[in-house]
Amino acid sequence: HYFPAVFPPELVMGLSSFTFRLRAMPITDFCNDFKCASPAVVSSSSIRIFVNQPPSSGMLAVSPPVGFDDMLFTLAAQNWHDDNLPLFYTFHQSVYDPDLDYYLIRNRMQVPFVSTTLTVIGQKTNTVQLRLWVFDILFARAEAYSVVTVYERIQNVTVTLQKAQRASAIVQQLLNPEILLPSLNSIVSLSEN
Q1: Mean pLDDT of 166-183
Q2: Which of 8, 42, 82, 131 has its CA 20 to 30 Å from the CA of residue 58?
Q3: Any idea what DSSP says for residue 101?
């Protein structure tokens, strides 16, 4: 006979292996369970099943840890180990908010790094959370996270432009002949004394 067995993942999670044991015996009028059966008529067989473990010991490294939205960030999956090679890597980004979804950067490739721009446009924070999924060939998955700070370049240009405009206004005031000449006359008269 054929007896299919399906187990929910949470039943075997955290286990490295488990054993199935099948026992069989003839049913008679005098005995219908294993307690009364003679060991001579009971047959048994067992099989040990190993559970595929996800990749381990790795991390998600990001370089640089702070930057602008128009520059390239390198995300690298480092030091991941697994018996079931090759490994595949998927990279995601999200603004640092647990209620927001992640956006796919690159999906399930064997290359353990990606260089990409990161965005915070229209967000209230400059912190971007990055997520890495690492899969083995049998689809066991591990996750790693990292954060990076990303600034919008346009904001910095605007702030710098405003500072330059203020400095220019101060220089124009200082170069104004009505302000500059009396100041120079005061300096000259002090040096003559």
Answers
A1: 66
A2: 8
A3: P
183: three-class secondary structure by DSSP: helix
Write the CA distances from 77 to 81, 97, 108, 122, integer angstroms. Answer: 11, 23, 12, 28
Q: Please state, in angstroms and rounded to a whole number, the distance separating the CA atoms of residues 68 and 65.
A: 10
Mean pLDDT of 101-127: 86
Closest CA to 80 of 53, 106, 55, 52: 55
Distance CA 33, CA 60 (A): 55
Within 10 angstroms of residue 175's Cβ, the number of other Cβ atoms is 9
Contact 113, 75 (CB under 8 A): yes
Which two tokens mark 64? 């640089």
Contact 145, 132 (CB under 8 A): yes
* Helix or strand holding residue 31 (H, E): none
In the numeric block, which tokens belong to residue 185? 């006359």
Going by C-beta distance under 8 Å and a sequence separation of 6 or more, which residues neighbour residue 41? 25, 26
Is pLDDT above 80 for 14? no
- Torsional class of 14: left (φ above 0), alpha (ψ -120 to 50), beta (otherwise): left
In angstroms, rounded to a whole number, what is the distance separating the alpha carbons of residues 186 and 180? 10
Q: Which residue has the tokens 């992640």?
A: 102
Residue given tokens 């075997």 in the structure block: 12
